[in-house]
Design brief:
heterodimer, A: Ubiquitin-like (UB roll), 3 domains, globular, B: 904 residues, Dimethylsulfoxide Reductase, domain 2, Barwin-like endoglucanases
Chain lengths: 417, 904
């Protein structure tokens, strides 16, 4: 029987998220004081040695990103941008942080901004997150009032402004370069990489883009140190990870655990097991841009490295559980409809490819066993070519759910009623 | 240079080039549809993907800069499979029907990849299901989303090239398509330049004019020539089919326009084939024009002009040359006036546009032309634009300005009236009409007070150095910001900001227009402007100088080749004996026969005619009865003359007063050259035949010279005429048709090996001492009295869609569709005061005349000022203007007439 280990969600449900005093009384903003009393480089190094990896989905080492942005922003002004455009289907962990402990995110952002020498930070947040926006606005106001934001923070001589910018409902704007376009007031089209944001980000300046959960890990790492952080989790996925578990489980919700627990422990011990008590049919890990796994993966360790070895993904931490009765073809159609709807249309392979994949998936209904196998094969081929030639991660994503479905469930899908 | 290998072929290319261009330049045909040389890379079509050693996956070559040692695979089966599939994806969403009216880059690729036949395709097309609707609402183009491959080229053409930013995508993914403005093309801010058409690779955006006619497989010839409209001198390619022009494209990769055009350059060719063209000589008999043979007409003209010359004196004759005709036409015309008429009474409409600018520039810095190449409008740090509606009147020059602004260029705009440049300007000063000298003296005062002058430049390059500067300092010392603000109405802080922006910029250029020149104080206005330029050292080097963008295709060239009452070709004064000797020798005439007395200017000629001193006039391609000031007076002058000849391509307001009308040629019907605003000598090439019996202009003059007993050499072609021009015009001495075949050349070009001169005065000014001259001038309030009877000031100007007296543009449907009505702009407060509503019909009267027109209520004008475009014959603005003249340049004050306005 596993239990949660809370670093990021430590205050969630315990303190009043509208009260900065509550946050301070539980040790809040101590890490910031500590960071400000040292050099920015010390912060970067602490994060580097913590082994923290980006929690938005890609799992890129956060310290490396910071170092890149910090070295680039030397002598110029840079930006910190918090990616709070939580749009991956099945992912709702950032919202949990922002609604229940907004100061934790803000403290993490100030530390990050200090580390790279930014004087301006933005939270680009999903527009429908009204409650999060309200809580953050309140918290930012309090932060300015108490001297954690604005000029000369805590007498350190360091200054930072922080602003919220709501998105307008585009999945793609959660992709970091598209997010920056949107933040600049342009239509949400992906930019060409390179340059990466650390080199030329917002308004062409060095920019650090981090996910909410990533930034919310910083106060703990700074306060207690990287070795404390590394004492949880696995070698390559230190610390904790919030999993947002949904679908056919009894107790859907966000659970923060040490990285490395098994999938079934998550589902059974924390989310209360499946509705019908039967073994689940499949779990979609990481959202629409994630991978389907069969029940044989029940005991897999939930960390970047193990999942990767088995051709699966951790992604944003979404765990979408499909019970025994679920139809896979319909799940697939739903995901492909989503990609088609969210494709921005900038590049040919994604624009046409997402539509073609969706159309082909619709053809599966009403086709016989052999025909379905042919269509599935064809779809995977298209998705592979799309992944090769698409401009941004969106067009490179359909191959993940499709290949995993095809690998693990092709006969089941071919025979599905 | 960097060295790289592509498919084991080693190539050397310049640094900074993108890989796609590097490959294509070296004969490696990587496919691609969204990339265009003029645009930032988009990476949308993905067809140009390659493999690069050390880089993960496939990389679009258009978005990668070449690096030394780069190893690239451009063609292998994997890449070709991806490309073929991408083309199939495009076919999935694309209507690939083709009607041979546009060039189709996608179709070429389909053929290359063997996908042009439907049986070779693996995907069923789906575009029919998408219910795309074509947008047919623009006067000049149609957009069909089903033919669109969403490559972004049109969007970027509009934004990055033309700086207009009208186009964008709407919807998302496979449903996305292009919209103009908020959705309907015809209601958007699209001004019809057609850059999007030119850059569209698939015929999704196609032009309307000529489209029912054009078939690319039936094009007889493509002729590269120079645009017949404003003085930018855009290079255009005319497509000719069945003897008619059916399309005009911008020529890519050459100066001055690099493929860009405006709405007139692209669509304004229809007039050439108008049924209204004059096709036969006409002689007025008993008040009616009757068709005549060329012999009848020319004999009559020769006889009557000779009679007048003999009966009165040579000075009783005069000629109006034409800013629309070629150098060759104009050169022979002034030679004809000087030899056959025997007078220097030769002038043309330049007198009505930049005469004051040229006068001031000749005196202060030595050349009557712009000092910088057009490209520097983009690269100078600061641009001072005064009295110049550059976006409407020089649309392609403005594209450079807008690109400069996008890169951080600062713009100081001085204009009493709103112009579209306000949107791009760093600061807009809105001085009252006629207060320019005060404004500029004020700026000079601020510059001196703040020490923003360039002392080294003053000492080394200004005549009289610090002493001369002190005089200017003294004169301008009374022009305090408070005083100047009071006169001009410009807030003091704006004066200081403008002065600082100009004076402290590393480089700064000036663009000065009709707003400055068309005043009684026109010459003084420009003197004060040049003073500011000289004391800040913003001249004599690249990206610094003063430029009067010229309004007509060859207004620069006509003066360059001697259509001036004062000067022979090349700005050589006629009063000088040696000059006349030299010219007489080249022309093969006795030097005594060349008149030494300077002639009369455009308006003076009409005034002299009114006074009975001028009895006969030969007007080539001018429409004085719209373009001259105080038309009632001009009308009287034309009526009083004994013999009037008008040579034109249409009946105009002026031909009515002619005794003989000669049918001439349009620009598309002849060979020759124009000179544009940045002194570029550009070739004009024949595309079509003259209609009916119409003749090329210079041939008519040549013939007439013979019949008046002053035959000219038998020029075999225009090249020979240009050879003679080069012989008498030192600034063009090194230019020949042979050289122009390689590209345009900017004068001065003194010899055959000289490359031409992009920037003037880099070593010295073209004055006697080689130094620039300061001309301190006092502000004098304008004399046109505003009183209870005539309480408002009328300003006049041009529109993007029309050209000069609109004889050409109003015979082009597309341009008329955009704008075809005269109007007057009235400030809302004045509208309330005089009880005028938007759309009211009003009478406008001045002390000289009246007109009727429609009211547009608009905050574009200041209170107390009204503005009218002057192109329209039904509301002739010049019935109201004055023919008082600037004493130095003889320009008339078109910009300032006291009027009253009343509802009808």
């Amino acid at each position: 029987m596993i239990i949660e280990k809370r670093i990021v969600l430590k205050n969630s449900g315990i303190i009043n998220p509208e009260s900065i005093d509550d946050y301070i009384n539980t040790g809040g903003y101590k890490a910031l004081s500590k960071a400000l009393s040292g050099t920015p480089l010390q912060v970067v190094e602490e994060v580097m040695s913590s082994g923290l990896r980006g929690r938005g989905g890609a799992g890129f080492p956060t310290g490396t990103k910071k170092k890149a942005a910090a070295s680039r922003s030397a002598g110029t002004t840079g930006y910190v941008v918090c990616n709070a455009d939580e749009g991956e289907p099945g992912t709702f962990k950032d919202r949990e942080i922002m609604e229940n402990d907004p100061h934790l995110l803000i403290e993490g952002m100030i530390i990050a901004a200090y580390a790279i020498g930014a004087d301006k930070a933005y939270i680009y947040i999903r527009g429908e997150y009204y409650k999060s926006i309200g809580r953050l606005q309140n918290a930012i106001k309090q932060g300015y009032e108490r001297g954690y934001l604005g000029n000369n923070i805590l007498g350190s001589g360091y200054s930072l402004d922080l602003e919220i910018r709501p998105g307008a409902g585009s999945y793609l704007c959660g992709e970091e370069l598209t997010l920056l376009e949107s933040l600049e007031g342009k239509r949400g089209y992906p930019r060409i990489k390179p340059p990466f944001p650390a080199e030329k980000g917002l308004w062409g300046k060095p920019t650090l883009v981090n996910n909410v959960e990533t930034l919310a890990n910083l106060p703990g790492i700074i306060e207690y140190g990287s070795s404390w952080y590394r004492s949880s989790g696995t070698e390559q996925t230190p610390g904790t990870k919030i999993f947002s578990i949904c679908g056919d489980v009894r107790k859907p919700g966000c659970y923060e655990v040490e990285a490395g627990v098994t999938l079934n422990d998550l589902i059974n011990d924390l989310a209360g097991g499946t509705h019908d008590g039967l073994p689940w049919k499949t779990v979609l890990l990481g959202g629409a841009a994630g991978t389907f796994v069969p029940y044989s993966f029940a005991d897999i360790s939930m960390c970047y490295e193990r999942l990767r070895e088995k051709g699966a993904t951790l992604g944003s931490g979404a765990v979408i559980v499909a019970g025994n009765e679920r139809k896979l073809i319909s799940l697939m159609q739903s995901i492909l409809r989503f990609f088609r709807h969210e494709s921005c249309g900038k590049c040919v392979p994604c624009r046409a490819g997402t539509a073609i994949l969706h159309e082909k998936s619709m053809e599966l209904t009403g086709k016989g066993y052999d025909e379905r196998l042919t269509i599935l094969e064809d779809m995977v081929n298209h998705a592979r070519q799309m992944a090769k030639s698409s401009l941004c991660p969106l067009g490179q994503s359909p191959v993940l759910p499709l290949e995993s479905l095809n690998r693990h469930f092709r006969e089941i899908m071919a025979a599905e009623q | 240079m960097v060295k790289l290998t592509i498919d084991n072929k080693t190539i050397h290319v310049p640094e900074g080039l993108n890989l796609l261009e590097a490959a294509r330049n070296n004969g490696i045909p990587i496919p691609g549809l969204c990339y265009h040389r003029k645009l930032t890379p988009t990476g949308a079509c993905r067809l140009c993907v390659v493999k690069i050693e050390g880089m993960r996956g496939l990389v679009t070559s258009c978005t990668v800069e070449v690096t030394d040692g780069m190893k690239v695979t451009a063609f292998d089966s994997e890449l070709e499979d991806v490309r073929r599939l991408l083309l199939e994806y495009l076919l999935y969403e694309h209507n690939d029907s083709f009607d041979n009216t546009y060039s189709d880059e996608l179709r070429e690729l389909l053929i290359r990849y063997n996908l042009d036949k439907p049986e070779n395709r693996s995907l069923k097309p789906a575009w029919q299901k998408m219910n795309f609707k074509a947008d047919d609402s623009s006067p000049v183009l149609t957009y069909d989303p089903s033919k669109c491959i969403k490559c972004f080229r049109c969007i970027k053409a509009c934004d990055e090239v033309q700086g207009k930013n009208v186009l964008s995508f709407t919807e998302r993914g496979i449903s996305s398509f292009i919209i103009a403005g908020t959705g309907v093309w015809g209601e958007s801010e699209c001004d019809g330049c057609g850059e999007c058409i030119q850059l569209c690779p698939t015929g999704a955006i196609v032009e309307k004019p000529g489209r029912d006619m054009i078939r690319l497989d039936r094009i007889e010839k493509k002729v590269i020539t120079t645009c017949p409209y404003c003085g930018v001198g855009c290079q255009i390619e005319l497509l000719v089919q069945d003897g008619r022009i059916v399309r005009s494209n911008g020529v890519e990769g050459v100066s001055p326009n690099d493929g860009r055009l405006c709405v007139k350059g692209r669509f304004g060719y229809e007039f050439v084939h108008s049924a209204d063209r004059l096709t036969t000589p006409l002689i007025k008999r008993n008040g009616k024009f009757e068709e005549a043979t060329w012999d009848e007409a020319l004999d009559l003209i020769a006889k009557r002009f000779t009679e007048i010359r003999n009966k009165y004196c040579p000075e009783a004759l005069a000629g109006y040359a034409s800013a629309k005709c070629t150098n060759e036409d104009n050169y022979l015309f002034q030679k004809f006036i000087r030899t056959a008429f025997g007078t220097n009474n030769i002038d043309y409409c330049t007198r009505l546009c930049h005469a004051s600018t040229v006068t001031a520039m000749l005196k202060a810095i030595g050349d009557g032309a712009g000092s910088n190449p057009i490209e520097h409008f983009e690269t100078t740090d600061t641009l001072f634009v005064t009295g110049n509606n550059i976006i409407d009147t020089h649309p392609v020059t403005a594209t450079y300005v807008k690109q400069g602004v996008a890169k951080g260029q600062k713009i100081i705009l001085v204009d009493p009236k709103w112009t579209p440049l306000v949107r791009y300007a760093t600061i807009w000063l809105q001085p009252g009409l006629g207060t320019d000298v005060a404004l500029l003296n004020g700026l000079v005062h601020i510059i001196i007070k703040n020490g923003w002058t360039d002392r080294k430049f003053i000492e080394e390059r200004i005549e009289g150095g610090m002493e001369a500067f002190k005089q200017l300092e003294k004169l301008t010392s009374s022009y305090t910001t408070g005083y100047v603000s009071e006169i001009t109405g410009v807030p003091e802080d704006k004066l200081v900001t403008a002065a600082r922006l100009y004076a402290t910029a590393p480089t700064a250029m000036i663009a000065t227009g009709m707003g400055m020149s068309q005043q009684i104080t026109g010459t003084h206005n420009v003197f004060s402007l040049i003073n500011m330029m000289l004391i800040t050292g913003k001249a004599g080097r690249e990206r610094c100088g003063i430029n009067p963008p010229r309004g007509q295709n060859n207004v620069q060239g006509a003066t360059d080749v001697g259509c001036s009452p004062y000067n022979f070709p090349g700005y050589i004064p006629v009063i000088n004996d040696d000059n006349r000797r030299r010219v007489a020798k080249v022309w093969g005439v006795p030097y005594e026969s060349l008149p030494s007395k300077p002639g009369l200017t455009t308006v003076e000629i009409m005034q002299a005619a009114c006074d009975g001193k001028i009895k006969g006039i030969f007007i080539m391609g001018e429409n004085a009865m719209i373009s001259d000031p105080n038309l009632n007076h001009t009308e009287e002058a034309l009526k009083r003359m004994e013999f009037v000849v008008v040579q034109d391509i249409f009946h105009t307001e002026t031909t009515r007063f002619a005794d003989v009308v000669l049918p001439a040629s349009s620009w598309a019907e002849k060979e020759g050259t124009f000179v544009n605003s940045d002194r570029r000598v550009l070739r004009v090439r024949k595309a079509v035949e003259c209609p009916g019996k119409a003749r090329v202009d210079w041939k008519i003059i040549h013939e007439l010279a013979g019949r008046m007993g002053k035959p000219m050499p038998n020029y075999r072609n225009e090249s020979e005429i240009f050879g003679e021009i080069a012989g008498v015009t030192p600034i063009m001495a090194g230019i020949s048709y042979e050289r122009l075949e390689q590209g345009s050349i900017q004068w001065p070009c003194p010899d055959k090996d000289h490359p031409g001169t992009p920037t003037l005065y880099t070593d010295s000014f073209n004055t006697a001492t080689g130094r620039g001259k300061l001309f301190p001038v006092e502000y004098v309030p304008h004399k046109e009295k505003l009183d209870g009877e005539y309480p408002m000031i009328l300003n006049s100007g041009r529109l993007l869609y029309h050209y000069h007296t609109a004889t050409m543009t109003r015979r082009t449907k597309a341009l008329k569709d955009f704008a075809d009505k005269a109007y007057v702009q009235v400030h809302p407060a004045d509208a309330a005061r005089y009880n005028i509503k938007d759309g009211s019909r009003v009478k406008i009267e001045s002390r000289r005349g009246m007109l009727e027109t429609i009211v547009h209520i608009s905050e574009d004008v200041l209170e107390g000022e009204v503005f009218m475009p002057w192109h329209f014959t039904e509301s002739q603005v010049n019935r109201l203007t004055r023919d008082e003249l600037d004493p130095f340049s003889k320009i008339a004050p078109f910009k300032l007439s006291a009027v009253r306005i009343s509802r009808i």
